[in-house]
Amino acid sequence: MATPDHLFSLRNNFYLGAYQAAINNSDVPNLSQEDSIERDSLVYRSYIALGSYQLVISEIDSSAPTPLQAVKLLAAYLSGPDQKESTISSLKEWLGDSAIGNNPVLRLIAGIIFMHEQDYNEALKHTNTGGTMELHALNVQIFLKMYRSDFAEKQLKIMQQIDEDHTLTQLANAWLNLAVGGSKIQEAYLIFQDFCEKYPMTGLILNGKAVCCMQMGHFDEAESLLLEALNKDAKDAETLANLIVCSLHLGKQSSRYLSQLKLSHPDHMLVKRTAADEESFDRALQTVA
Predict the structure, then answer these.
(1) Which residues have CB under 8 Å from 200's CB, separation 6+?
(2) Contacts of 67 (CB under 8 A, 6+ apart)
(3) Has keyword Methyltransferase (predicted)?
(4) In 4-151, which ranges are E strands?
(5) The dihedral of CA 78, 84, 89, 90: what is its sign?
């Protein structure tokens, strides 16, 4: 008889972006030591997702297990640009340590950090062997960022063989469908719609459904979903970025959303692209002035 999965709800909340719910409902009784460490890792990663980097850094001390130390590294990396170099240096040192280098959470955090650095080959060195559903899902994300949907599809098939109904398998399937486009967009939409019916609405679910709507040309519906997501988190980077794109297609002003994105997430790809386009435009003006 299979043992009950005490952390199922906590994991599911985290995967679907219900970070505060994950934190609020993390007091699970009768956990083994291994499950307690996983529970703490998910709770601290939820705090990181909410931007509470210093809380994580201050609460995880040097005696904590390797998975929590890895999560602390992620918090340090994301806490500010001045921390990135030293964090990556520590990360590489730990990955080279034969005693802890193969820890799945450490490899996952390495993949996340190197993906942020857009060093996808380095990320795959640590994630490509898989071992957990999260590592397989991260591989799907990395391959899609490399525009290798063929490799992403292979990873998805592995996930489907392990557990076709797993939340991460469904999410990875939706991501791949969005990347492939065409008739697959409708399939992605149905996955997010299914999440809407099964679980409380989160920014992640609403953004996923909105992106499907935009790709199908349903910008009014997309805007409605994104405004609902904005009500849940007024500083969420993907919501703001998607609202900028959606507003432009609807012929509406997007400058306020862009200003919010610049203030909250100055390193976001859309902010950088906009700044580069503005510089190019200014240079072109100077040549004809």
Answers:
(1) 18, 21
(2) 37, 38, 41, 103, 105, 106
(3) no
(4) none
(5) negative
Decide if 236 contacts 227 (C-beta within 8 A). no
The string of pLDDT tens digits covering residues 128-143 is: 998 999 999 999 999 9
Q: Distances in Å between the alpha carbon of 188 and those of 16, 83, 184, 191, 241?
A: 15, 37, 6, 5, 20
Average pLDDT for 191-196:
96
pLDDT tens profile 66-122: 999 999 999 999 998 888 999 999 999 999 999 899 999 999 999 999 999 999 999
Residue 23 has pLDDT above 70, yes or no: yes
Tokens for 229, please give them: 């997501």
Give residue 285's pLDDT band: very low, low, confident or very high (50, 70, 90).
low
Place of tokens 């609202």: 243
pLDDT at position 269 over 60? yes
Q: Which of the 8 DSSP states describes residue 4?
A: P
Distance of CA 262 to the CA centre of its chain: 19
Nearest CA to 267 out of 20, 76, 79, 48 is that of 79
* Rounded distance between C-alpha atoms, residue 273 and residue 268, angstroms: 9
